[in-house]
Design a protein that fits this description.
Number of strands: 5
Structural class: alpha+beta
Number of helices: 3
Shape: globular
Radius of gyration: 15 Å
Distance between the termini: 17 Å
């Protein structure tokens, strides 16, 4: 899903986008909508996973940190079927947050499951049929990135 959203956001300019929403539906065509972001109240429950990374987001260690944190929270993949995933990236205004989407989702191998244990960063991300990505600018974070994850299994 992130692969469909990324070209649109890059065309608009990732720094101009505060949130991105995608949903897979069975319908004859695709649609896209762009609008002004309005800040909503936080989700009613705390995130299922919170991680603050201090390593370079371009390094394999960054993915490993997310992967291990996710594995500690959810050692078994969610039962088969579609998944809704919500991610909030807390980062400084200097960062291109859209560059973090794919590696963060790829690091969640233990959540959607990974068909090959030798390749933990190739998850069954096709199961993600609802995706929300949010940017929370906080210059106090400096080079660190704080990531909150929420997920739920959807009815088939």
């Amino acid at each position: 899903m992130d692969n469909c959203l990324l070209p649109v956001v890059r065309r608009i300019g990732a720094g101009r986008v505060a949130a991105v929403f995608g949903r897979k539906l069975q319908q004859p065509g695709s649609t896209i909508a762009v609008g002004v972001a309005v800040r909503q109240a936080d989700l009613p429950e705390p995130p299922q996973l919170h991680i603050r990374t201090t390593t370079s987001t371009q390094s394999l260690a960054w993915k490993h940190a997310i992967h291990e944190a996710c594995r500690r929270v959810s050692s078994e993949p969610l039962p088969s079927g579609p998944i809704a995933l919500y991610i909030r990236f807390g980062l400084s205004s200097r960062r291109n947050w859209s560059a973090l989407w794919k590696p963060a989702i790829d690091a969640l191998g233990s959540l959607p499951g990974s068909p090959d244990p030798k390749h933990p960063f190739r998850p069954n991300d096709d199961r993600i049929v609802e995706l929300e990505l949010h940017r929370d600018v906080d210059d106090i974070l400096g080079d660190d990135v704080a990531i909150d994850f929420w997920w739920r299994r959807l009815a088939p």
